[in-house]
């Protein structure tokens, strides 16, 4: 089995974390950099990540997470929050960043910037919110895979109350909404889930080659 498939076979949604084991700063930085390098529509990355290791904050979030133990036992909790609404600033900041990073005059990028604005700025707020949330999941998948390559366990979590997360973390004031949560750390030896075979559709059911 090649490494790509080995990593995907190894990872599972960890239900019980070993609270005594912590992800190192170096490994955490690698995971976050892999996330930063993720693709997104137009490269705009309309989201922000909150990396939480503070135990008191995790304790506050647990009741809003259906009291799931992963929230307090995992080494870190990463809250992926999408931008709920945006204007020209989202595109303008990207154009400025591109100009600086690639040493291209901003004027030469003006046409591309206007094109993006024409496709995005007239969308209803609800559609903007949904589009941004979809971009979150691209980064989210890359985060899980990067962690698996480092043999760091994860648990993707949608079982939480976003409005309470938003209040605890002050997201509403930042024009953000908690989209999905990822617990990262190391599996407990008592987590029986790790020994179960993966349940997935067969290749015949899932793929059509044309």
UniProtKB/TrEMBL annotation:
InterPro entries: NfsB-like, Nitroreductase, Nitroreductase-like. Keywords: Flavoprotein, FMN, NADP, Oxidoreductase. Residues 10-186 form the Nitroreductase domain. The keyword Oxidoreductase applies. CDD domains: NfsB-like (cd02149). Its cofactor is FMN. The keyword Oxidoreductase applies. Pfam families: Nitroreductase (PF00881). Belongs to the nitroreductase family. This is NAD(P)H-dependent oxidoreductase. It comes from Flagellimonas iocasae.
